[in-house]
Each structure stands twice: as C-alpha cells, then as structure tokens.
Amino acid sequence: MRPFDFLRDRDWRNAVLKDGFGVGFWVFVGVAVLAGLACYVLKGPEAFHHALVRDIELVFGLVPRVFVAVSIAAVIWFLLPRERLSGLVGKESGIRGLVVATLAGAVTPGGPASAYSLLTVLATSGADRGAAVAYITAWATLGLQRVLVWDVPFMGAEFAILRIMITIPLPIVAGLIARRLPLTLVVKDENEKQEEVDTNLHK
Fold first, then answer.
1. Where is the signal peptide (predicted)?
2. Integer CA distances (angstroms), 58 to 64, 100, 150, in order
3. Contacting residues for 61 by C-beta, under 8 A, at least 6 apart
4. Are 105 and 139 in contact (CB under 8 A)?
C-alpha cells in the first residue's frame, strides 16, 4: 500500500467530511451569519465590510500556523515511546508519572478524538487515575498546537509565555488531588466492556 492510497478510500473521505462538517461546524456557521447580519444592521455596510476583510485576513494568517503546529505536534507524538509510556505512569510512578503524563498531554495533537483515545489506552494499560487526570488536564490547558495557533497569534508571545508559566503546575496538582479522592475509576475499553482500573490510594 502506497503512502497516500487512503485518499482514494471513500469511507475515509466520508468520515473526514463528517468530522469536519458536523453539527458543531454548522452551529458556528449559523452564529457567524447571525453575527454578520447584526453587524450589518446595527453598524452599517461599512463596518460590516471592514469586519469581513479583517476576518479573511485572520483566516489566511492562521492557516499556515495551524498546519505547522499540527505537523510539529504529530511528529513529536509519533516519536514518543507509547509502549513504555504506560509503564511510566503507573500507580507506583509518583511525581515522575504525573510529569510524564503532563508532557504527553501537552504534545498530543488533534482534538478530543485523539486525546481521549490515548487516555483510554493509558488507563486500561495500567496508568493510575492521577496520571490520567494530569494527562487530560495538560492536553486541555498546555496543548502545543493551542499555544502556537491561538495564544501567540491572538494575544502575543508574552501572554503565551505568562499563561504557560502559570498553567504548568495545574495538571500535576490535579493529578495529586485525583489520587487522594476516595473514588473508583471505571473505563470503557475498545470493546465497550467495563474494566475497573486499579485506583488504590498511594500511601
């Protein structure tokens, strides 16, 4: 099979279109149209034209950054030793496990589909709940592509650095709290079977 033969797969193309142009996409389109109409009615055609030009400039400015950010994150994640990763974030890993989970979450590319798929693999492979919480918290707050695509272009490098410095401890703190809570973590595996993950509290 050649590298790009998947482009000829109709099921793959349909899945991409469904994911990219699903309900969420059309909700955003509807909100954008309503906001544009409100701008035109309330502020007049000149303001509407100015806003439209700025939006187009923003889109063309973001597309290259999105491509580069996703490519970097994908390469980093591909190079990570995923088989060893689950062993590094087990219940005996301590703070080191939380740090590893935080780094993994920060470099995980893509949206919830990729992040939660990996989270399930980690949880069913021996990762404790603290590492699982640290991973998904880092993905949500420290994602590399979010920093490159959103923080830096919209708010500037200084804001991005400040936000990262403040946010870095949060996944580890969240993981420590998760380890202390007297709860049982239950995760669905790929076959939709319930598997209870060992969540004994660390002494």
1. none
2. 11, 35, 11
3. 153
4. yes
Q: What does the alpha-carbon distance between residue 54 and residue 64 come to, in Å, rounded to a whole number? A: 17
DSSP letter for each residue of 51-118? HHHHHHHHHHHHHHHHHHHHHHHHHHHHHS-HHHHHHHTBTT-HHHHHHHHHHHHHH--SSHHHHHHH
Domain assignment of residue 110, given as a range: 64-196
* Statement: residue 3 has pLDDT above 80: no
Beta bridge partners of 195: 187
Q: Has residue 18 been placed in a domain?
A: no
Evaluate whether residue 148 is within a structural domain.
yes
Place of tokens 């804001």: 159
User: Residue written as tokens 């980690």?
Assistant: 122
**Residue carrying the six token digits 């069913």:** 124
Q: Is residue 9 part of a domain?
A: no
- Is the Cβ–Cβ distance between 152 and 160 less than 8 Å? yes
pLDDT at position 77 is: 64
Distance of CA 184 to the CA centre of its chain: 25
Per the CB < 8 A criterion, the answer to whether 167 and 186 are in contact is no
**Residues 4-46: tens digit of each pLDDT:** 666 677 887 787 777 778 888 889 899 999 999 999 999 999 9
Question: Which tokens go with 171?
Answer: 């996944």
Coil/strand/helix, residue 182:
coil
